[in-house]
């Protein structure tokens, strides 16, 4: 096997941003997890309240193992919250819970980009797992068609990340508005929620930039050959 210095040169900005974003989201979540909201509500209680307020009665709220493993599952119609978020009564817990409810609201309102992202999950998964091997074999066999096939497969990953970022940003915007409109948080707490969710958004931005740079590397390396 070999290491290509060009890969490191091209991908370095994305890797640095990813590392910084990961640190930022963990440190920000940790900081505001120590600050309780004045209403004393838990993440699970807030999630249920916001779902009810939006007229969504058929989505469950369940605990889910793992650290920051929170997500909304549109297939099972359930908001799954990590233990710290489900039970927590902090700014971080409430912000993350509201964000996941934001996805449930997107689903209920047929938010177009969310539907597009769901349709891209399969192709993106295949592209993430198979593209490198197809491109590598294509290089070994000097088969241009196979290399371009691998690049096309990875393009699905880029497209998925390109759609994911605005979907996540929109869910956070919905979360902030809902929390303030319901009076669950005050203005000072809203500033903390904003920091937590903005830090989380950085991880999706980093993933998008990294995937674009990786695709750029594949194209440059192939055309160079």
What does this structure look like?
There is one protein chain. The protein has helices at residues 5-32, 43-53, 83-87, 91-108, 112-141, 144-181, 187-224; strands at 60-63, 71-73, 78-81. The chain has 225 residues and is mainly α. The chain has one domain (5-224). The chain has a three-stranded mixed beta sheet. A hairpin with a 4-residue loop joins strand 2 and strand 3 (78-81). The radius of gyration is 20 Å and the shape is elongated. The two termini are 18 Å apart. The model has no long low-confidence stretch (mean pLDDT 94).
Quick gist of this model?
The chain has helices at 5-32, 43-53, 83-87, 91-108, 112-141, 144-181, 187-224; strands at 60-63, 71-73, 78-81. It is mainly alpha-helical and 225 residues long. The chain has a 3-stranded mixed β-sheet.
